[in-house]
Amino acid sequence: MIIYPSPIFGPVHSRRLGLSLGINLQPGDGKLCSFDCIYCECGFNSDHRTRSRRPTRQEVADSLKQKLQEMASAGRCPDVLTFAGNGEPTLHPDFPAIINDTLLLRDELAPDAKVSVLSNSTQIHRPEIREALMRIDNNILKLDTVDEAYINMVDRPCGTHYYVHRIIADMELFEGHLVIQSMFMKGVTTSGDTDNTSDRYVLPWLEALRRIRPREVMVYTIDRETPDNHLEKATPKELNRIRDLVLAEGIPCSVSY
Question: 3, 139, 152, 212: least buried by Cβ within 10 Å?
Answer without folding.
Answer: 152
